[in-house]
Here is the input.
Amino acid sequence: TESSSLTTALLSEMGIPRIIGRGVDKLHDRILRSVGAHEVIDPENEMGGRLARRLSQPNIVDQFELGDAVLAEIQAPDILVGETLAELDLRNTYHVSVIAIQRNDNVRPNPPANARLESGDVLVVLGGPDDVEHLASQA
Here is the structure.
């Protein structure tokens, strides 16, 4: 922790425009920021959070936080299979937008309203965390 703090301080003195540090705890995060880090990451904590979400919501393949929203890959729940996006009206029903549909190894970005969901499809959706979890929990 001492070496990363010293390295961050030296990089800051050199005028490096973007310094990203790796913190090990909250105190170390504060120290790195105080000596010039623009951003501090904790990969172990982030991966732990992602793993916890995967275990608690197995239908959510992956998700990324975007402020108050999340971009998530969701295994299409069986109750959606066979329906078109227009018929499902996910924006009004679940308050999420479908950004893409992944079928096998093909990704179809910005799918049309008449796109019919098939078993095994992965939906890339954007919405609030609770809304995404609600959609993913439909079995």
